[in-house]
Amino acid sequence: MAGETTEALVGGAVLAAAAGFVIYAAQATGFGGGGSDTYDLTASFRSLEGVTLGTDVRLAGVKVGTVAGIELNAETYRAETRLTLQDGIQVPDDSAAVVASEGLLGGNFVEIVPGGSPFYFAAGDEIIDTQGAVSLISLLLKYVGGGSDQ
Predict the structure, then answer these.
(1) Confidence band for 59, pLDDT divided at 50, 70 and 90
(2) Please, which residues have CB within 8 angstroms of residue 67's CB and are 6 or more apart in sequence?
(3) Is the separation of the CB atoms in 104 and 136 below 8 Å?
(4) CB within 8 A of 82, min separation 6: which ones?
(5) Secondary structure (3-state) at 3
(6) Which of 56, 91, 102, 103 would bridge 109 by S-S if both were Cys, CB 3.0 to 4.6 A apart?
(7) How far apart are CA 48 and CA 59, in angstroms?
């Protein structure tokens, strides 16, 4: 009888821990559903190297959203990107979106560089000022190959 009680308690503890992990994962990935109000902005990049769906969108180094959509514009050959930002994060309408790197071995993310305008982007607006990813290998090859103009 005592063995069955112990097994039931251990089983309950395992189920509670599993439920806790599921709730944490849902909140961390944005699938929590409750209270997670967001709005979308769009941006067009020449190169989105290293950026995928779910990549962080950061402002002053703080995650304020994610990349929610990427598709190629067949006419302009640019990557049309949908950025989902947290409600309450007001982005000045002269801000820039830049593909930045966490370092030589780190991944890329989209950084919003705020402007000084007193007006803000509304949901669905497009960030016009963008800068795509800089390929470190291309830069290295230019440097090694002596590609500097003098």
Answers:
(1) very high
(2) 51, 52, 53, 54, 55, 56, 57, 81, 82, 83, 84, 110
(3) yes
(4) 40, 41, 42, 67, 68, 69, 70
(5) helix
(6) 56
(7) 18
Rounded to the nearest integer, the mean pLDDT of the chain is 85
CB-based contact 98:110 (threshold 8 Å): yes
- Report the alpha-carbon distance of residue 76 to residue 125 in Å, rounded: 19
Residue 133 tokens, joined: 């990813």
What's the number of CA atoms in the CB half-sphere (13 Å) around residue 1? 0
Q: How far apart are CA 99 and CA 105, in angstroms?
A: 15
Q: Which residue has the higher pLDDT, 31 or 24?
A: 24
Long-range contacts of the stretch 100-103 (C-beta < 8 A, 24+)? 100/58, 101/50, 101/133, 101/134, 101/136
Q: Are 123 and 39 in contact (CB under 8 A)?
A: yes
What does pTM read for this prediction? 0.67
Count the neighbouring beta carbons within 10 Å of the beta carbon of residue 120.
Answer: 12
